[in-house]
Each structure stands twice: as structure tokens, then as C-alpha cells.
Structure prediction request, 775 residues.
Amino acid sequence: MAAPNRQDTKKFFENLSGAGKSIGVLTSGGDAQGMNGAVRAVVRMGIYVGAKVYFIHEGYQGMVDGGQNIEEATWESVSSMLQVGGTVIGSARCKEFRTLEGRVRAALNLVQHGITNLCVIGGDGSLTGANLFREEWSSLLETLRTTGQIDDEAVQRNSVLHIVGMVGSIDNDFCGTDMTIGTDSALHRIIEVVDAIGTTAQSHQRTFVLEVMGRHCGYLALVSALACGADWVFFPEMPPEDDWEEELCYKLSGNRADKKRLNIIIVAEGAIDRSNKPISADYIKDLVVRRLGFDTRVTILGHVQRGGTPSAFDRILASRMGVEAVLALLEASATTPACVVSLVGNQSVRLPLMECVQMTQEVQKAMDEKKFDEAVRLRGRSFENNLHTYRLLCSRVVLPQSGFNVAVLNVGAPAAGMNAAVRSAVRVGIAEGHKMFAVNDGFEGFAKGQIKEIKWGDVGGWTGQGGSLLGTKRTLPAKHAEKIAEQIRIHNINAMLVIGGFEAFECVLELYELRAHHVEFCVPLCMLPATISNNVPGTDLTIGADTSLNAIVEVDLYKFLCTCDRIKQSASGTKRRVFIIETMGGYCGYLANVGGLAAGADAVYIYEEPFDIRELQVRGHPNENSNENFTTDFIYQLYSEEGKGVFDCRKNVLGHMQQGGAPSPFDRNFGTKVAAKAMQWITTTLKETYKEGRVFANTDDSACLLGMRRRAMVFRPVAELREETDFVHRIPKEQWWLKLRPLMKILAKYRTSFDVSDSAQLEHVTHVRPKEAAI
Prediction:
């Protein structure tokens, strides 16, 4: 995407009034978890700015039929909607809207309600229909005028129709966005099934073939294969080579020979071979049984993938997109094209709707023409990165021995996804020709010599394991510098990959500073941020934070407990109950603030935004160090006393359950990809710093942190990040997620100021076709 020019001056949304405007919101096509969160955000943001907002029930069918299908929404009508799956305003396929007569009826129904702003939540077919409706709008109004159904004043008053789309699709098949609403939740359903099947498959040494959705797009199959460490994956954009049957059987038999007790094969429902012939789950089962004699079963997940409560990621994504959609409608002019609100990296963008639709259609055209590499490229950077990582981890093609030894260790508190990162690092490192060494118990174990070589098979099954299988300690290296240096010499360690939270950042910084005194530390050093608190400088997101957010908003399947959704159900039963929920995070309010956004909290108290007794007039979530005096216990006691005879008060301290459990699909995938990228950086840096028979790396850019910043993964020298860090409170001096705080407040009906100068701007989809290879 071509980035827009931005002005430094701040712009506040208070200058964008919705007074006199009416917004219609509809969901169309297949349902997806998170659609309700998007509807809720559109309704509440629209009402907040003074606009009228209307539900259009049953999608385009409701627009054509009119009547009670078009209903004005209120603030309360979207309460308790955020955690509900599917779409509560309904969705339906509508043949009538495909006809001119049907669209004339739809236009009349909108004009009768004064709706000239439409927010459409659906897939590419729904959004294409919306764009056609907009293009025909003037002629539709003229038809209504000439038939006497509306007058000239109505034509003038409703002369322009503005369209903003949000993509709701579990398949993630829309070009221009890294993630569509519903995809992450569908991955949760798939991984829950895979994890459950894994236990029975191991018991009986079975092979399972799982069919997932994805008739035209293999994203669910590809990412779920990465997230569960599947043995093989089939999806339409990249069919297997012609000899795939032999290769598959060879790999499965090899895994059994290595004493692996289960095999998982993921198949997208639209999987094909290179002749465009379908590859079905039953065909694969028959192949494995016939050639290998393995006990093989097929599981077709079907509509289970659409069901259930939305994940934390989808709730947050839907809320962000819904607010952004209203801002786009408020800012639209008569010449603004219909746009779609998208997510690129961690940043919201607005893209011309039809440019995205056309690119999506080009993918299918490329597949029809058997230009599969082109199809993958058109899917976008996120899809390409996933495929690249999968190939790195599954090829088993090992380069010649490099002669380099790389140590990997965990530091700080455990975080879900650490083991996925270690597995990825070990396997990519081995594939690059390195010897990989595992260090147990962080730098404390390093000093004690708890170091051993780790092989490819040693990390099998690690992806879905929670906690830290290597063991982790908070010990910093400075006080053990001599012993650590000695162990580096003994094991000839040439590079280190440190995976952990704020302590890991401090460790790498200390090693960098110790280079002046110990030449052993003059090796490439790379840190991967992994902590539930998301408090590490140099990155927007850390491994483990997504799993923790899901623990906050849903029932932890592995341990106990009532958390926000169950708590809200309990509270809604009496209508007179207030819950105080404490999250972890130390002085970083990320979990409290973003968890509050995902759970629909009424208030969130955090350290970064000082508050006083007046702020406690509203219930909500504090994080553990939000205020040294206004603690969770104090707030609970205050509400209990003041609420006597009016409401009951309950307290829930989530504690270490936020660190436990299996990692979410996002954290498995994120940890896997960033570790693979880190190992490739280590390989490059080792080659660059190897001179005269030894590795010597002492520059700032040889000790780096790899993090996600806005749209890209970026390596930043830890020495540079030192200036951006508040070491007293163990947080970055600037935290991107604080920009989401006004959004949370607006959706909870606060009066607040919202800086929209950094909001999405209209960009264009750009893709350059690769040059033909030279002959």
C-alpha cells in the first residue's frame, strides 16, 4: 500500500459532527464471529457523534423488504452483544438485490429513513454489491422521482450515498487486509479441535486428516498447520508437486520411524493438485491406509468454525474497525470512493473498495491459469510470510554445516507462545546448518552450565505447550558474567537468541554493555519480546499477550474460572451487581485497557492515566499497579459500602491464570514467525561478523530486539531502545495502545477527547508484478 502524507497537526473527532446524518449498518453473506462487535461499535460511535443509526436486519434482503427490517438503534440495544457469536441483526442471501428492481426498492427504503451512509459488514460479494448500489444511486433516485415515489426535495436531500465496508469472513480471503473479522475466532475453533484430537491420536498411534473451511483461500489451513505443527497441509493457492503422494507417505513413515505417535494432515476444502483436480480428505485417508496401513481417520470441522464466542482479537479488531468506519463516513465527501477499513500489521488503513475486490478476483484468475506463485503474492504479505515460514519449518532440507553454535534461552516470567518460538528457532537454525543449544533456566542456568545440544525431534509437539519447557528465571547476567563467559568458551557459543519479557531486554542490554570487558559477549545477540504484560520497548505486541487477553475475556478451558463473559452473565441475572476485576501487567495497563475494550468494560483504571476518587463513580477493571492507594481491595470496599441497598459488589483477581493454559493460535503463529525471522537475521549477522576464523560482533546493530512496529517487523538495537524506556516502571516511554483508550471510553459512554490525526487515511492498493526470470 502506498502510504499517505500525514500532517503533524493534531485533529480531534469533536470537529466531526454526525448531527443530521443517518447511518445504516448491515451484515451480509456468511456470518463471522466478531460481526456483533463491529455493529456495536458503529452504533455507539454513531450515536456518540450525534448521528442516527439504523439496524438493517437480514442484510440486503431487509433493505429490499424495508418495514420493520429497518429499525433505529439505541445505545442499550447493543448491550451484551460484544461476546455473542454470529450476527444478531441477521444475514441472508438476497437474489432480489441483484436485480435493478430490487435495488430501486432498497433505495426507496433508505430514502424514507434518510439513510445516506451505509456500513456494510461482509465478504467481497457483499461489498461489491454495495459499491454497485452506490454507483447507481443517482439513477435509482431519478427512477423513484419519475415514478412519483419521492419528490425533488428528497432527491436533493439524499443526493449522495457514502459506503464504508468492513470485511467479515472467517476465510481471510479478502485482499488488502492482513486479517478479516472472524478469522482469528475460526482458528481458535480449529486449534481447539486439533489439540483435543492430538490426545486420542497419540493414544492409538493414529493419523488424522482434518478438513477446514477455505473453498478459495487456504489461510485457515496454512495458519492452523503452522499453529499445530501439522505434518502436511493442502490448500488451493499452492498445490503440491506431482509426486506428492510419494512424498507424503515418505514423510509420514519417517515420522513414525522417529517414534512420533500421531500425524496431523490439514486440508482446505478447496485443495487442488496442479491439474486443478480436487484433493479431498477421504482421498488422502484412502492413500495413507492403502500405502502405509496406518489407522487413519477423517474429521470435517464444517460450521463449527463459524460458531462460538469471538476471540479477544476479533472483539478488538471489530471495535477498532467499527469506530474507524464511522470516522470514514463522517469525513467522506461527494467524491470519496467507497472504501473498506483494513488492518495492515497493527495499523488501520482505508483502501478503495473496488481495488481490493479486483485484486481478490485476480487471485482466483491466477489460480485458474495455474500461476500459483502469483496467486500467493496477490494474497498479500501476511499470507506470503506464513507460507515462507511453513516451508522453512517443514522442508527438512538442511544446509551444509555452518560451524556456528547458537544458544536459545528463556528469561523472565513464562508466556504462552515461548515454546512455539523455541521450536521454530531450533528447526530453522538446524535447517540453516547451525548447531542449536538449549539453555535451561535462563542466565542462571547458563552460568551453571545447564546447556545441551537440541535436535530437530526434541522440539516436536512444543507448539501447543504453555509455559516455558526450557525453564525460565529472572536472573540478570551481570553478576554471573565470568561464569557465563566461561560457558560460552566451553560450548563455543557464536550467537544467542533470548526470548522473554522486560528482564530479557535488560539481559541483552547488559550483555551489550559487558562487551567492553568480556570479548565472549561480542557475538550476535537477538531478543524476542515474550510477556503477557506487553511492556517491552521496540514492539507493539509481545508473544503471550494475546493468550492472556483471551484468558481475561473467556473461560480458561484448562483450569477454572469465571472471567468477564461469565461474570457479566452472572451480573445480568440480577441487574444490580458490580464486578471489580484485577488484571496483571505491573505498571503497564495494556491488559487492563485492551482487555476492557474486548470485554466491554464500563471503566478501566491504569497507572498511565492518573485518577482520583471522582473517577471511581463508575465500575470497571483496575490493573494491579494502577494506583498505590486506590487498590482493587479499596475499590471493592468502597463500592460495597456505598452500594448497600442498591447493588452488590464482587471482586475477581485473575492472577496467574493469565499466564497459564495453551497458547492462542495468534501467539503460536506469531512466536513461530518471529523466531524464524530472528534466526535468519542471526545467520546473516554471523556471516557478516565472521572474520579470521572467529565471530566478532561489537556494533550496536549486532545486539537487537525484533518487534512489530505499526506495519512491519523491525530489528532495533537495544542501545537505541534504552533511551525510549522507563526502567523505574518497566514500561516504554510511549505506548501505542494508549491511543485505544479514548475508543474504550467512547464505547462505554464517557465524554472524552479522541485524537484522530493518526487514524486511517485513504490509500491505494499497490502490487508490482515480478519481472520475468532471465533465460
About this structure: The longest strand covers residues 405-411. Residues 2-9, 555-563, 768-775 have pLDDT under 50 and may be disordered. The longest helix spans residues 665-689.
